[in-house]
Amino acid sequence: MKELALRMGGPLAAATVVVAGMLTMAPSAQATPADCETFLRSHHYVVGKMVKVSCKAAESGTGLSKTVCKVKLKELGVKSRDADTACGLSSR
């Protein structure tokens, strides 16, 4: 699409290129507790009921909810850095 727009020339072509560029830079979908769980699985943690509860705790995205998530995950043996990342992935 970009190549075709450049051949057309004029203001329409420039607008087409700008719009096409903006579409490719659109933000990804909202994070969810499932993203937290997937991250932890990919780092070789067992994702059971308590991990799911911990990831769900961060879903609202508030500072307190993320802290609760991190503390719970750390209590379950998740490394601090991994808990921080996982809880961030869980929040909206």
From TrEMBL:
<protein>
    <recommendedName>
        <fullName>Secreted protein</fullName>
    </recommendedName>
</protein>
<feature type="signal peptide">
    <location>
        <begin position="1"/>
        <end position="31"/>
    </location>
</feature>
<keyword id="KW-0732">Signal</keyword>
